[in-house]
Amino acid sequence: MDFHTLTRTWRGLNAENRFHRLVLAVLLLTNLLTLLALVRADHTVVLVPPILEGEVNIARDSASRSVKEAWAVHVAGLLGNVSAGSADFIREALEPLLAPPLRREILAVIGDQVEAIKRERVAMYFSPNALRYDQASDTFFVTGRQVSAGPGAEPVRHQRTYEVRVGFQHYRPVIRHLDVYPGGPRTTEQP
């Protein structure tokens, strides 16, 4: 047996083992860092719903403009199409969408209006015909024709605007601003 070959092979084998141990430690460290980054990362959900034209993004605390636009139109539709039978349902549907600072005030106003609608048996119908977006305030203005009709009364038609600012919190929509008024939109940008 050649002692020189044996020592060279033995040293080479030990050197290779040390190198592999070092590589294993580095790989373990990179896997732990990758796992930590994955756990801490915000996830973006990409959706293509049938009511929207293209891809939309919803992240933990933000969403694309088209998603906010769809929610603004939805809220305007809920608030604008009310009858004595649907008033309580609409109030319950809107309550979880409202931001905490707005919730008490808006629910009080909606509660008063629900009672008036039930008492007078009025039905309101809203047909949106325009949507504007104010980029400076991130606010949507849904404008349309509002028709109010009661039993034995002539329907009253007028233009109404729903001013809605939609945000997202923990992947859920939150109404951060809501205002309803007669006439056209009150925007900072005029056409």
Structure in words:
With 191 residues, the chain is an alpha+beta fold. Helix content is 43%, strand content 28%. The chain has helices spanning 3-40, 65-80, 87-94, 100-120; strands at residues 45-47, 56-58, 123-134, 139-149, 156-169, 172-182. It has a four-stranded antiparallel β-sheet, covered by helices on one side. Strands 1-2 form a two-stranded antiparallel sheet. It is rod-shaped and about 115 Å long.
Strand content: 25-35%
Low-confidence stretches: none
Helix content: 40-55%
**How do the strands of the widest beta sheet line up side by side?**
3-4-5-6
Radius of gyration using CA atoms only: 30 Å
Query: If helices are DSSP runs of H or I spanning 4 or more residues, what is the number of helices?
Result: 4
**What's the number of extended β-strand segments?**
6
What is the arithmetic mean of pLDDT?
82
Described by the principal axes of the CA atoms, the overall outline is rod-shaped
The biggest beta sheet reads: 4 strands, antiparallel
What is the succession of H and E elements? HEEHHHEEEE
Classify the secondary structure makeup into a structural class. alpha+beta
- Span between termini: 95 Å
In short:
This protein is of the alpha+beta class.
Topology:
Blueprint: H1 3-40, E1 45-47, E2 56-58, H2 65-80, H3 87-94, H4 100-120, E3 123-134, E4 139-149, E5 156-169, E6 172-182
Antiparallel strand pairs: 1-2, 3-4, 4-5, 5-6
